[in-house]
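Tutorial sheet, problem 5. The two components below are modelled jointly, 649 residues in total.
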Amino acid sequence: MLFDHIKLAFRNLKHRGIRSWLTMLGIFIGIAAVVSLITLGNALQGAITGQFDTLDPDKLIISNAETGFGPPGSTAIEKLNDHDLELIENVNGVDLAVQRLIRTVTLEYNKAAVFGYATNIPENDKHISLIYDALNVKTQSGRLLTKDDRKKVVLGHNYADSNNDFGKAVTVGKKIKIQGEEFEVIGILEQASSFITNQIIILPDEDIRRILGINKEIDIIVVQVDNLDNIETIANNLEQSLRRDRSLKVGEEDFSVETPQQGLQTVNNILAAISAVIVGIASISLLVGGIGIANTMYTSVLERTREIGVMKAVGARNKDILSIFLFESALLGLAGGIIGALIGLTLAFAVSFTVSTVFPTLNFNVNLSIPLLSLAILFSLVIGTVSGVLPALQASKLRPVEALRA
Amino acid sequence: MTPSLIDLNNVKKYYYMGDSIVKAVDGVSIKIEKGDFVAIMGPSGSGKSTLMNLVGSLDLASEGKIFLNKINIENLEESDLAQVRGKQIGFIFQSFNLIPNLTAMENIMLPMMFQGLDEFNREEKALELLKIVGLSDRADHYPNQLSGGQQQRVAIARALANDPQIILADEPTGNLDTKTGELVMKFLEDLNKKGKTIIMVTHDPLRAQKHARTIYWIKDGKVEKLTRKVKGTWKIIKSFSGD
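Model answer (structure tokens):
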């Protein structure tokens, strides 16, 4: 019997053709918006948080402030140096402090020159392992640098791609010119989620300082803390010691101490806010879609009053009519949901394809989320059913004689 | 004496329009026996259609009692009433009232669906009925692809779907030309011969007298007279005029 009702409802919708499609349009725009925006939002979140993969939660980063606050001329900030490193090593709770350089260098290979990010590895095994840990890198071929390597380089995954800017893949054993000096490639890294890691150039500390003419300057200091629970306190202590050492007041710092989670959290908060707005907009369009269904169902009740009368005359009970009309609106919602979900997904994939083409280094990957899809379709089904309840009730309660007179 | 198939006892149906009361049916008592061919005759506005709606339980009386097979339909729940209606009464309407988005075959299957018959049996029965009304080759046609006469024959087949005892026909030939009208009447006569009780509402005395055996003449919501065909001639059984 129920199956018969569904079949009958389906026939009715089919019969109304374009009107059913227009009604569904309202629903599937909403669902398509929800599905595509949430899917893209997730991809965006993945792409952004992927960039933070190089940071571990138990490490603090101390860096030079990029701009000073104050009148022009006073912005010449004091860069971090050996002295600061020593100071930081002695702060309570600091397990290890490692200096790092992050600089732009020119690379020459296959008669092409490109710029890349170079970083150093220090000359202490413990420090080296901290850096590798922080960068979260593994080699795809060859090996990583050790403290005794000189004039050797490890390259990020992008350089091993034949579509790179050199027009030719770099492989282990090849020679490459960095800032005019020749280096031997001894390792290529695995593909990483961070695009910075994928185009990184890892050099021995001594070499990078020589080719760039850097003396005691340090770009960032990575601090490993002995107890993760105290990371905020240790960060405060570090800030305080550096301030005292440089005789600066609170707010005048020419350096910054950052816990990796701070950055990540801020980004996540922003993303969550964006998601909320998106979901809000999509909900409005879903509401409008639901009203559209209710409207169509009401019209259809009015139009088919006589038909309802006939069905009652041939033995349809109120609950039969109710169920036929409810199935009609539920089917509208369900079909709208499925079509909407498919359109939304297609849209999301199209956008992700475009983004990946335009920014190939960004890991902007759209994932097919079955829970999201099922939820969207289920939601649409519920909206359809709920919007159909009142018209269906009205239809079922018509008295046969009155319905037939219509 | 065996109880009548349909028994109306002082049935009234009033409509309230503002301050005035329209007495559409005003105290009708009639008994319809099993196997009879009854015509309810009267000019338009006489209340004959209202009376038929009451007999067919499409409407409820304001006053009085209606017994269908000894059951007081007033006491039935909505869903039971619908089931009784679907099982015991077959309706034929002046304007055919087929469902436009269902084929001839599906229209015939509809009453069986509401009785919970499974699809296989519904199809079998519908095909059989289409054959009876001579429309086997039109099974998959939609109502708008059929002529008026064909639509009314589909409607007759639909009325027969649940093998009801009673066929209620409301001006069944009203929208048909004379020739097709006769064909439809022929079907009703055949059904009557096979034991169905036919109740036909009409305003055409010639047609009523040609096919029916019992005629209730209705005027102003009341039965004016009851005539019956006895051995080929019409006799007035009861006359209420002048009461």
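Marking note: The mean pLDDT of chain B is 88. Full credit if you identified this.
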